C-alpha cells in the first residue's frame, strides 16, 4: 500500500465514492419525484432536519451521560477532592448543608466542563436544576438549625438553667463534649455545620447535638478551662451558693451540716434523693455524719487550695436541682487581689456570711472564765466579721456591675455558727430572736445595717452544725436549708418543710432555727431585712 495508513487509504476511496454517489442520489430523486426540483429540495431539507435532530438527541444523551456519571462519582461515591478534611478544632464530619452541597456542585460543574468542552453550555439546565435543589436543601437545613437552637435555648431559659463551671467559675452557653469512643473533644455540639439532630465524630461515633436529645449524658468538659464536669451540666437547674467568712468561722462544718440536713430530709420523703454529683464532692463530703459528731472538730479548708464548688444533685419527684456550694478558705477574703480571683461571686445570687460568735470580742469578753477555758479551742482568729463582709461585698458589686446586674436581686444569710457550743452558757440565745441577739450581744449593728443596704434580702440565723448519734441534724440546719431553697420549686422547699421536728440535742440550743423564725413574738417566718422595692 506504498506506506499509506489504512485511514488514508479509506479516505482515498471515500471521497471519489461520494462524488459519484451524491449526484446519482439526486438524479434518482428527480426520477422518483417526476423531475420536480421543488419536491426534491423539500425532501432533502426534511431529511437533513431529521438527521440533525437525531444527531442532536444523540449528542445530548451522550452529554447527559457525562453529567450523570459526574454526579454519581461525586455525590454517591464521595470522589470530591474539593472537600476539606475536618480540623482538630472540631473533629466531626460536615453535614451536607455545612459545605459539601456547594463543593459537590462545583466539582460536578468542573468535571462536566472538562469532559464536554464547549458543549458544556448544553448542560447548563442540568446544573441549574442541581443548584436549585442545593439552595432548597440549604434553606430548610439552616432554618432547622435556627429553630432547633431557639427551641433549645428557650427551654433552657424557661427552666432557668445557667451552667457554671465549678473550677474556673465561668458561665457557658453549652459545654464541650468528649467522644466516648475515641476521646476527641467537640467544643460545640449544637446544631450547625456539623449536623442537625446528630453529628458524626471522625471515628464514626454518632452523637446527639442537643441537651434535650441526650447530649447531657455525654462526657462534658468546660469550654473555657477544659476540665471535666461529672455533674452533667445542662441537665438540671443550678443553684450556686457562696459561703464566705473569716478563717475558722465554721464554713466547712456548715457545708457538711447542710449536706447532712439534705440527706436526712430526702430520706423521709418518697421520690426524693440527694447524691454527690462528682467524685470530688463525694470524697470531700463522704463522712459528713462523722465529722458533725458533737465535740468533733472539722479541719478548715487549706489556705492554698483553690476554691471549687461542691456539686449536689437533689431530686424531688420529677424535678432535679444541682446545688453548687462554694467554700473558699478564709484567707481568700483577706486581700482584694485574692478575692478578685473568686469570679464565682459575680455568678451567684445567694450568699452566706458565716460568723464565729466566739471570735467577736464582745461575746468572748462577756463569757465567764470557766466558759472561756472550755471554749478556747473552738475560737477562731478573725475578730472582725465586717472585714470579710466588706471585702466580698465590694468584689460582688464590682463583678455585678461589670455584667450589668443589680445587687438588689441577691440574697444574704448571716449565719452565726457554734450555736450548740453557746447553749448552756450565760449568752445562750435560746429565748432571744436571732437578729436581736446579734445586734445586742454581738454588737453587729453596723454590719447588719450595711447588709440591709447592700443586698436585696437579708436573713439572720443561729445554727448548730451537729448531728445526733442517730443521724438527725440540728433543726437549725433544716431552717437554713429551707431558706436556701426558697427560689426553687416547692418540691425542694418541701424537703425542708415543716414536719415532725427531731428532738433537740442534749445541751444544745433548744431550737436555734426558731431564733431566725421569731423576729417578733407572733412572726412565723425568719427575720427578714431588706429594702422595700
Keywords:
about 525 residues, alpha/beta, eight-stranded mixed sheet, four-stranded antiparallel sheet, 16 strands, about 40% helix, membrane, Double-GTPase 2 domain-containing protein, transmembrane helix
Can you describe what's shown?
This protein is an alpha/beta fold and 533 residues long. The longest helix has 40 residues, at 37-76. It has helices spanning 6-32, 37-76, 100-116, 124-158, 251-267, 279-284, 288-291, 336-339, 361-366, 369-375, 386-402, 419-422, 434-440, 445-454, 475-484, 490-493, 512-516; strands spanning 163-164, 171-172, 176-178, 185-186, 198-200, 206-208, 219-221, 228-229, 237-245, 272-276, 310-316, 319-327, 350-355, 411-416, 457-462, 528-529. Mean pLDDT is 81; it is low at 499-533. It is rod-shaped. α2 (37-76) runs antiparallel to α3 (100-116) and α3 (100-116) packs antiparallel against α4. An eight-stranded mixed beta sheet has the order 10-11-12-9-13-14-15-16, sandwiched between helices. The protein has a four-stranded antiparallel beta sheet with strand order 4-3-7-8, with no helix packed on it. It has a two-stranded antiparallel ribbon with strand order 1-2.
Summarize the structure.
This protein is α/β, with parallel strands linked by helices and 533 residues long.
